[in-house]
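$ run holo --ligand "nickel (II) ion" --emit tokens
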Amino acid sequence: MALLPIVRLGDPVLRTGAQPVPDDELSSRKVQRLIDDMVDTMRAADGVGLAAPQVGVSWQLFVYEAVVEGAPELTIPLTVVVNPMVEPEGHETVDDWEGCLSIPDLRGLVPRYPAVRLRALGRDGRPFDRVVEGFEARIVQHEFDHLNGVVFLDRMRDLHSLAFYEEWERYLREEDAGPTAAKAE
Ligand code: NI
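-- output --
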């Protein structure tokens, strides 16, 4: 197990469009190890998603997984996404709280589509095509943005909801906010 350093806002790699992972490199030891290390790094950081640019690698690759204590119905199995295309299903967006491992300690309200179509390759190079919804759709849009040099701050309609985690918990977290609201990716 190897933990990779997570780069923070200000590192130019977070503002750079990522390149597709070449077909003939996906099965290489180097890329497969990177995927394993990204999974370890995401779990160690208690995150629900991590994109390659966040570990300084400008490739179109991200991982996500959600294990929410006390809410098994919100579990999202580990998913590896390579060279994705993401398209919204429908036009309406919904606001919910987001945080980012590259912008530590901040939370803000971000509009996202409640469902998106995700087309990509898995780590074995096999294509998949599925519609994801809810919290999973939010994670996928957040990670896909990372591949295009976009962070959640750019997506906020206004910055009034932006808060440090501790103050967010104290003043802003609604009674009915689910456990996913506290997660970062
Ligand atoms: Ni992020």
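-- notes --
The chain has a mean pLDDT of 95.
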